[in-house]
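stage 2 :: seqdesign
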């Protein structure tokens, strides 16, 4: 009976080691072009914020980006900024960070266009912004001289828990547009399945020898 259990014990131990190794090597990578960010991820979903009016909103909003859901919040309320038909998301209070969190299960990538806006919600060039992504650990990136085309994306080896956006204290409001959520690229799943397949093969071979 003990001999027949050995393959199962071995498979369980190896799977545990793989999970531990993956956790130990987890890290967040920063991308400053949307093309590179999308190349490292799969199945992206975008929240354009074009449904927001130029108005003050509650401190927390539940949002969707394609097939994903998330929550965005800011102390003192959020603000619908922008011009014409292109609307953005900002904070109502200049020094209140915008926090993106409660992402759908499996989301390990977050990106978007980040810049500054004025008290009326209109674009201000050359803002300096601070973005911090967290996945159990955290990574902070400073975006200097931001324009409406400035893109920053974070991709983690594990699920992201939050991303915050704030200013350096300058006379502008933190503003986000076309936020992108995504999951690991398909190749990542292929590597994981291949690893699990190897564990199963080892267990079967040892089973035959026994």
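stage 2 :: out
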């Amino acid at each position: 009976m003990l001999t027949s259990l050995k393959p199962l014990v071995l498979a369980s131990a190896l799977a545990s080691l793989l999970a531990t190794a993956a956790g130990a090597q987890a890290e967040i990578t920063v991308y400053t072009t949307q093309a590179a960010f999308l190349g490292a991820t799969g199945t992206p979903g975008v929240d354009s914020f074009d449904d927001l009016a130029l108005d003050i909103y509650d401190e927390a909003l539940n949002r969707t980006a394609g097939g994903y859901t998330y929550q965005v919040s800011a102390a003192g309320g959020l603000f619908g900024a922008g011009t014409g038909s292109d609307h953005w998301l900002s904070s109502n209070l200049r020094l209140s960070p915008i926090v993106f969190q409660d992402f759908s299960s499996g989301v390990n990538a977050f990106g978007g266009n980040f810049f500054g806006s004025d008290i009326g919600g209109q674009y201000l060039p050359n803002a300096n912004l601070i973005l911090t992504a967290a996945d159990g650990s955290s990574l902070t990136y400073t975006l200097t001289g931001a324009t409406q085309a400035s893109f920053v994306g974070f991709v983690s080896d594990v699920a992201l828990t939050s991303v915050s956006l704030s200013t350096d204290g300058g006379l502008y409001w933190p503003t986000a547009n076309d936020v992108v959520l995504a999951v690991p690229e398909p190749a990542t799943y292929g590597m994981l399945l291949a690893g699990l397949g190897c564990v199963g093969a080892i267990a079967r071979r040892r089973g035959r020898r026994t």
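stage 3 :: structure notes
- Residues 163 and 188 are 22 Å apart (CA to CA).
- The radius of gyration is 21 Å.
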